[in-house]
# Entry
Amino acid sequence: MEKQKYYITTAIAYTSGKPHIGNTYEIVLADAIARFKRMQGYDVFFQTGTDEHGQKIEEKAKEAGVTPKEFVDNVAGEIRRIWDLMNTSYDKFIRTTDADHEAQVQKIFKKLYDQGDIYKGYYEGMYCTPCESFFTESQLVDGKCPDCGREVKPAREEAYFFKMSKYADRLIEHINSHPEFIQPVSRKNEMMNNFLLPGLQDLCVSRTSFSWGIPVSFDPKHVTYVWLDALTNYITGIGYNCDGESTEQFKKDWPADLHLIGKDIIRFHTIYWPIFLMALDLPLPKQVFGHPWLLQGDGKMSKSKGNVLYADELVEMFGVDAVRYFVLHEMPFDNDGVITWELMVERMNSELANTLGNLVNRTVSMSNKYFGGVVSNPGFMEPLDRELRETAVSTAQKAADKMEELRVADAMTEIFALFKRCNKYIDETMPWVLAKDESKKDRLATVLYNLVEGISIGASLLEPFMPETSAKILEQLGAKKRSIEVMNMFGLYQSGQKVTEKPEILFARLDVNEVLAKVEEKKAQEAQPEKPKEPVIDLEPKEEITFDDFGRLQFQVGEIIACEAVKKSKKLLCSQVRIGSQVKQIVSGIKAHYTPEEMVGKKVMVLVNLKPATLAGVKSEGMLLCAEDADGNLALVVPEKAMPAGAEIC
# Structure
């Protein structure tokens, strides 16, 4: 039987800088959904990537002194490193600078222009560079960008526009007839009431005020504006071809089953993107889920506030799966979640170290202590066991029901409810008391078997959310990962199987004060001035001089036209130096560092009004400037750029 396909995407990350934990939450959320669908037997294709064009990138590259492509190559690499660090199982990482994507964007633009959906005009309004969006005066909030709150500037430029209103009624009808299309419902209401029902304005889809973008093929002074470029990644990444020669993968996977995005870009994915697809005569995605934000304790993360947390910093302190657990379990379905160091420690200790880690450790330790690690099932069942069994066999369906609604945190709560039930079962059965009575040995074996079986089911279900932890638990129990089809069956653990001899501590308890001290120590280190990459030399300061003193010194660029060794000296070279229309003879103690042949042709910096002196019987009419390191090595000071002989140094 052919597997049912499931195509899931994240928003592509903007390559303006390193993603913080709030950005990283989305890829982890998508990964958990993708892994769960695979566990359910779906043929999953999971795509993520980077959005790499635009004015903001062009400006940042200029500030960094690199080309835009060099800039985005570096940031895209950093984004992919963090996605990999978080153990995400994406199938494709698309970049909007990929040649095949750029070619299709050009074709799409031309197709929409040819069929009359795009026209040329002028745009005049208030422009927000970070958001790359135009706004009317009425849309501004306190005179600033309504999306990010930053300054906006008036702008007017020639641009191409898309006729959004042409498809607005069709989109409204689709949203009304497909209540699952926009989730949560609060996002749907926002789009309908704030944008669609009041009437759509035509959308600017090209720019001329910057060049870092995909050129419009028939009007190359224009580059394709960000949303028509970025949004189309969802189809170009799976082989869409505007000429009608799309790949088999595109035919299989489109439409997307889920676009997972942040709530701040819901408008672009539920209004602009569906309308573009309608114009291309393509099916609309089945669902767009606008997830909430993960906030720092004092609000939305921003570098200007100094409250940004990064995934790699958290992983260094807590480990990958602990961070995955936190961002997945602490995020409500449609309200913003909060992350702080203190809250991370509290969850680490209570849920991970105590509820889960201690449960596994106790179960493995008791199996070793009482039965040499052998887990057997004599079948001495009592009424007390029924609730544990019922909880275990019902957990998979409960989690699946929550995942179907994209309530990932609730699904994890169901799994941890099973672990908590196992802990309660230990308290109820008191294996340490049973172990004291030889006649209760079979009952004790049954209790430990039930624990191992219940934990095995929970650990198998945990794999989409905490894959490394799931594997470690199953390995310690000597159990195999269960398929979803048999997670509603109790008793599949092979009787006679052995657990590991030495249980591994899955999560160590942490002291919140020690963690906070480490955080502050790291902040203090980062606040220190960056150490120079090369050694430096500090000299004893000489007496201060005035500007008039300095003004008496005459420095000029000189060109060495001839050079020879001074016969009576082991250290001196005699150079003929052209300075303007004059040639001066200058003797320098640099023979150990330069040969006469190396000197000829060099442009050097010369102190020209130094009183003449005689050195080793040779007259010297100036001084060549050199730098000297701690080991006595010399280097001539030369102009950075080409300068004519005689140029003044000031």
Q: What stands out?
A: The longest strand covers residues 118-128. The domain at 547-649 is CATH 2.40.50.140 (OB fold (Dihydrolipoamide Acetyltransferase, E2P)). The chain has a mean pLDDT of 93. The longest helix spans residues 341-371.
